[in-house]
């Protein structure tokens, strides 16, 4: 779809429709944006299906729309693979999504103290008035000063929270928020958990469905809460296998297995419990996770599993490296943009020159010029 701009700072025209976009004066609800990211009111795919369960990783350049509803609107109007969303999102909802992505972008800002993961939960399908397995979000204070935790609250009363966070999280300290869903309201239940500090407002997006029909809820054999890898030499690879059980009464179609968190790139789902496979009632599948050690003293991530039934609790995954040499830390904003699908937000052909390549070419040209001078 071609897009022609008129009055550059105020209006956008698109074929077949006129979208009037004044500078945002409406109130934005990041809580509603978090819910929309997880699931739309209808059955159509929402943002998480294309951009993944960890939007902070900027898959398909989604954070270009952080606090930028105009960019999101333009993308919905021009990128064909995302066009199906346009009739299903109002101008207000686009603004809400943009506000949620703004809070996600703040997690990548090293000038702000609080880091937290995961920031999305899918509880799956639950029987009415039953409590789902618990999911855990870790908060980390990466600053040199204590961070006051002002409040932790859920926007939906069906979402239950408890935590061990102190009123002031000390420098380098961590705490955990445990979240579950307990609802009698049939159908889709969405919500968000708000974490408020003096300098940041962060959101955890939640989604789940409630039914009266028989449903299975997956569980981990032995009910582990942490999968720990022992100390390993840099670049060494370790593997661990855990069993995921379907106690019944219904078969379960497996969905995505994901690892999210600040060092998720050091962990990998190697095999087992693959998306699309069917786990019959009374059976189990073995899921293998690998860890590649580095010189960072501690690698942290969270394992999440999705399905068409009740999803199991999230598991914290940790590995210990060998900090015998100075740690090499790569800022999140220096990591390459993750891609996949084709619903990229932003110019599809935008490229940046490789600075190293430019430097080498310059040195080569200088060397050639010197040789000519000597000749």
How would a textbook summarize the main sheet?
A: 5 strands, mixed
Strand and helix order: EEEHHHHEEEEEEEEEEEEEEEEEEH
Count of runs of 4 or more consecutive helical residues: 5
Computed CA radius of gyration, to the nearest angstrom:
23 Å
What is the overall pLDDT average?
A: 84
Number of strands: 21
**Low-pLDDT residue spans:** 1-25, 325-340, 348-363
User: Architecture of the largest domain in CATH?
Assistant: Sandwich
What's the level 1 CATH class of the largest domain?
Mainly Beta
Give a short synopsis of this structure.
The protein has 375 residues and is an alpha+beta fold.
Structure commentary:
- This protein is of the alpha+beta class and 375 residues long.
- Helix content is 16%, strand content 35%.
- It folds into 3 domains: 3-108, Cytochrome Bc1 Complex, Chain D, domain 2, CATH 1.10.760; 113-213, Immunoglobulin-like; 215-326, Immunoglobulin-like.
- The chain has 5 helices and 21 strands.
- The termini are far apart.
- Residues 1-25, 325-340 and 348-363 have low confidence and may be disordered.
